[in-house]
Design goal:
With 550 residues, this protein is of the alpha/beta class. 27% of the residues lie in helices and 17% in strands. It has 15 helices and 20 strands. The strands form 4 sheets. Strands 5-6-4-3-7-8 form a 6-stranded mixed β-sheet. A 6-stranded mixed β-sheet has the order 9-12-13-14-11-10, with no helix packed on it. A 6-stranded parallel β-sheet has the order 17-16-18-19-15-20, sandwiched between helices. β7, α6 and β8 form a beta-alpha-beta unit. α9 packs across α11 and α13 packs across α14. The protein starts with 16 loop residues before the first helix and ends with a helix. The relative contact order is 0.09.
C-alpha cells in the first residue's frame, strides 16, 4: 500500500484517504473477540494492526473536540522511529460515573486515544465523598488531586479540552472535558430529575445528540445505572481496566498434569541425580515454554510409578524438576497434621520451604487452607525456631448486617473475626494424644503466646522481621490493600495469603479484580513465590456436597 506524501508545512493536514482506502488487518495476542479493540480494558484488548507513516511526520492530538480524530496536525518528528496509528476510526467520548473515579483514581489515564468527559454532578459527588479515612474517601481525594494537576498543566482555554498527557502519562493521547455549560436533555418523566444518576444519564443523552458523529459511552460500576442507560437507548459499559483476568477460570492454578506420553518424548534427553532426600531431573522438550518457576507437575498413570515434582530452574529450553516430600505419610506429619490429597501435599511443601517467601492458597470451603498454614507456622516457630511468632490478620468484611462497635483491645476486637483460628487451634491441640490434660493446657497457652492477631487498619508503616504472616480471607482485599500488606515484610518474613474467590463480599470487587487474583498473577514465576489451588474439600461429606450443589 503506498504511503501518503509527507506534508510540506507544519500546519498542513495529513491526507488520510489512502490510509483509509485499505481496511486495517487485525492481529491479536489473545483469543479473538468481536470489536475487542474498542474496549475500555486496553491491556486485555487485541489492538488493530498499526499502519506506519513517514518518519518526518508526527501525530499530535487535536486542539478542539472534533467529530473524527483521523484529521490530526502533523509536525516534524524528533526521532527517526516511525510512529503508528492507534485508532483509525472516530474516537469515542467516555462519560465517567462517580463510582469509577472512586474505584480507580488512575482511570482518567486508561482510555488511550479516546476522550473523557466529566459532568458537573460528578465533581459534586466527589466533593461529598472526600471526607473520612475509608478507601473510597482516599480515592476521591486522589482523583481531585489528579484533576487539579491536569488543570494546572493546561495553559489554554479549558473549553478546548485538557491534554491527559500533561502530567507525564505519555501513553495517553486523549483529552479531558468538563461540563462548562448547561446541556438540554429530555428524560422520561418517571425518572426523578434531581437524582444524580439521572442527571448523568441526561448529560450522556445531550452529548449523544450534540456529537452525533462520535460514539458517546457511559462508564459505570453501577449495574442498575448501566441497565437504565441501555433502557434509554444509551451506550453503557463496565469499567474493565481493573480486572487482572477476564475470566476467573483462567487463574493460574500452580499445578500441571503431565501427558501420558511424557516419558516417551523426554526419555532420551532426561538427566537425573540425587541430592539429599530429593531427586532432580533435567530435561528439555515442547513442554518447557509452558512451565513457570515453582510450578508443580505430576504424572499419574495406571500401572506406572507416579511423579510429583516442582520446577526449580528454567534455562532456555531446559527445565529442572525436584521431587517433593511426601506429607501424606504419618512420619512426615506437620504438627500432627498429614495431608490427604495431592494439592494439599503441594501446599505443605510450599509452606515448609524456607526459600519460598510468599505463598498464595485458593480453594473452596473445607480444603484445609487455614489448618495447614497454622500447622506449618507452629512447627517453624516452636520447633525449628525459623520465625519468632505468627501474625494473623484478615479483612473485616461481615457476611450479614454489622453488629456495631466491639469492646476491648485490638486483639479483643479482632476476636470475633478470628473464629477460624480458634477452630483450627482446637484441632491442632487434639493432635497431642500422649499428653495429659495439664500438658495440653500448657501447650495451648504456649501456642497462644506465639500467635498475634492484628487488624488491617494499623498495618501502614509497619515492618515485620522474622515473622510468619497469615492473611486470611484475602479475596476481599483490593490490589492496593494487598500491596500495602505484602510490602510490610522485612528480612526473614514469610507471608501466606489464603482465600476463596467464590466468597467475595466487598462491593465492586469481582474474581477478576480481587487483590488475591492480582497477587497470584503478578507473583507467577518469581523464584521465591508460589501458588497452588486446592481442589478437593476435606472438611466433611456434608460440606463437600454443599459446596458442589449450593
Amino acid at each position: 500500500m503506498p504511503l501518503p506524501p509527507a506534508p510540506a508545512k507544519r500546519a498542513a493536514l495529513l491526507n488520510t484517504e489512502k490510509l483509509d482506502a485499505a481496511p486495517a488487518k487485525s492481529r491479536s495476542t489473545r483469543k479473538p473477540a468481536p470489536r475487542h479493540e474498542e474496549r475500555i480494558a486496553h491491556e486485555h484488548a487485541a489492538p488493530a494492526k498499526a499502519q506506519e507513516i513517514s518518519p518526518t511526520v508526527k501525530q499530535e492530538p487535536h486542539e478542539e473536540m472534533p467529530a473524527y480524530k483521523g484529521e490530526r496536525k502533523a509536525t516534524p518528528a524528533r526521532t527517526a522511529t516511525p510512529k503508528k496509528f492507534k485508532h483509525t476510526g472516530p474516537a469515542k467520548l467516555f462519560v465517567l460515573d462517580t463510582n469509577v473515579l472512586m474505584h480507580d483514581p488512575m482511570c482518567l489515564f486508561r482510555f488511550e486515544e479516546h476522550d473523557v468527559f466529566l459532568p458537573m454532578i460528578v465533581l459534586e459527588e466527589l466533593d461529598s465523598h472526600k471526607k473520612g479515612m475509608t478507601e473510597v474517601a482516599r480515592n476521591a481525594r486522589q482523583t481531585s488531586r489528579s484533576l487539579d494537576a491536569l488543570v494546572a498543566s493546561h495553559n489554554a482555554d479549558i473549553l478546548t479540552g485538557i491534554k491527559l498527557d500533561g502530567t507525564g502519562h505519555r501513553e495517553v493521547d486523549g483529552r479531558l472535558f468538563f461540563q462548562t455549560e448547561p446541556l438540554d436533555f429530555t428524560l422520561p418523566s418517571s425518572l426523578p430529575q434531581g437524582k444524580a444518576d439521572n442527571q448523568i444519564l441526561g448529560v450522556v443523552e445531550a452529548l449523544r445528540v450534540k456529537y452525533a458523529q462520535r460514539e458517546v459511552v457511559l462508564v459505570s460500576k453501577d449495574i442498575n445505572m448501566r441497565v437504565k442507560a441501555r433502557a434509554l437507548g444509551l451506550a453503557a459499559e463496565d469499567y474493565q481496566n481493573d480486572k487482572t483476568l477476564e475470566d476467573g477460570d483462567l487463574l493460574y492454578s500452580g499445578a500441571l498434569a503431565l501427558p501420558e506420553d511424557f516419558w516417551f518424548k523426554h526419555a532420551k534427553s532426561v538427566e537425573s541425580w540425587q541430592s539429599g532426600s530429593s531427586t532432580f531431573y533435567r530435561l528439555s522438550g515442547p513442554l518447557v515454554p509452558d512451565l513457570h518457576i515453582n510450578q508443580f507437575v505430576y504424572y499419574e498413570s495406571a500401572g506406572e510409578p507416579s511423579l510429583y515434582a516442582r520446577v526449580t530452574e528454567i534455562r532456555g529450553k531446559t527445565v529442572v524438576l525436584k521431587t517433593l516430600k511426601d506429607f501424606t505419610h504419618l512420619k512426615n506429619a506437620v504438627w500432627g497434621v498429614s495431608t490427604r490429597n495431592r494439592e494439599q501435599n503441594f501446599a505443605m511443601n510450599l509452606l515448609t520451604d524456607p526459600e519460598i517467601d510468599f505463598v498464595t492458597l485458593t480453594g473452596t470451603a473445607g480444603t484445609g487452607k487455614t489448618l495447614m498454614a497454622l500447622a506449618a507456622g507452629l512447627t517453624q516457630v516452636l520447633d525449628d525456631r525459623r520465625y519468632t511468632e505468627i501474625i494473623m490478620t484478615r479483612a473485616t468484611v461481615s457476611v450479614g448486617d454489622d453488629i456495631g462497635f466491639l469492646p476491648g483491645t485490638e486483639e479483643e476486637k479482632m476476636g470475633p473475626w478470628m473464629g477460624a483460628l480458634d477452630d483450627n487451634l482446637e484441632v491442632l491441640a487434639k493432635t497431642e494424644t500422649n499428653a495429659d490434660e495439664w500438658g495440653r493446657a500448657a501447650t495451648n497457652d504456649l501456642i497462644r503466646s506465639r500467635i498475634k492477631i492484628k487488624s488491617l487498619n494499623f498495618m501502614r508503616g509497619r515492618t515485620f522481621l522474622n515473622k510468619y504472616l497469615i492473611i486470611d480471607e484475602a479475596q476481599n482485599l483490593t490490589p492496593k490493600q494487598m500491596k500495602t500488606l505484602i510490602t510490610r515484610a522485612g528480612p526473614g518474613t514469610k507471608i501466606v495469603c489464603m482465600g476463596n474467590l467464590a466468597q467475595i463480599d466487598t462491593p465492586y470487587l469481582t474474581e477478576g479484580s480481587s487483590g488475591l487474583t492480582y497477587a497470584v498473577d503478578r507473583f507467577k514465576g518469581w523464584p521465591h513465590g508460589a501458588h497452588i489451588t486446592l481442589a478437593r474439600g476435606e472438611r466433611s461429606r456434608l460440606a463437600d456436597f454443599a459446596s458442589e450443589v449450593l
